[in-house]
Amino acid sequence: MKAVIQERFGPPDVLRVTDTERPEIGPGEVLVRVHAAALNPYDWHLLRGDPYVARLMGGVGLFRPKARVAGIDAAGRVEAVGADVQGLRPGDEVLGFCPGAFAEYARTTADLLVPKPASLTFGQAAAVPMGAVTALRGIRTVGQVQAGQRVLVNGAAGGVGTFAVQIAAALGAEVTGVCGAGNADLVRSLGAAHVVDYAREDFTDRRGYYDVILDNVGNRPLSRLRRALTASGTLVANGGGSPGHVFGAVASMLRVVAVNAVVGQRLRPILPAAPSGPTHDDLLAVTTLVEAGKLTPVVDRTYSLADTAEGVRHVERGHARGKAVVTVV
Question: Domains along the chain?
């Protein structure tokens, strides 16, 4: 099969497309014929082994990537199922977390897959797993957003942000989206009642206004984020940062946890860089929203498998509009 291989840590240029063996599956595993795979910040973090502290925390690799084939989000058809797999059979259309997604075939476990909504193309479906699940956890699970609350999404036009705006609006919140002027109409169309152009206005100047802030960017000091919250408000911190750091977003998350211990507001990190937690339930929750017409993936650009490196480079620049997707079939 054709696959995108990463032999060492480095910039997107280290990725190459080559022929490699098709994965073999065991009990509880599923082989997926990949039709499309999404590009995430998670991918360039793994590609670079960044932040460097992540290499010491396991799962990434110390001197070279543990995962030889890149990618995590996929949509496609079930090719084969292992023993003990229930509810899936060859030919089923699915989406979910498939390590090694930048390839013609990827191996995963049954609990990391759900049926693909019929209303979505494979490209749209591939855009769902990490972005929508992270947004769901940030807005519903961690942020505990309720109807009537004032919710701000920083980075509202990005991969997580476009899902977060829709989920918060579906829960009945009054949503403010922070984005560039060129994305204002998009963010409004997703359900934002208000849009802040970050180039012209600092949303943290509005003191004590928001009940929940989901920060996907990490470009404002914690003290200023806190002052934009109500006295009992909740800050949900979702990474941010650029490549080349020793601690990166990990340091920001630790700071949030430390300050949370001594203030009245709720300051909570969300760590979206792995399909951990009640993943199957979360995937079902977001696909249910899709089927109800309350959640629609925003696909920014599509790339061929041969152009995956350019797609990763685009996402790494930090200005993707919604999601970027690799078309495999």
Answer: 2-128+297-327 (3.90.180.10), 131-269 (3.40.50.720)
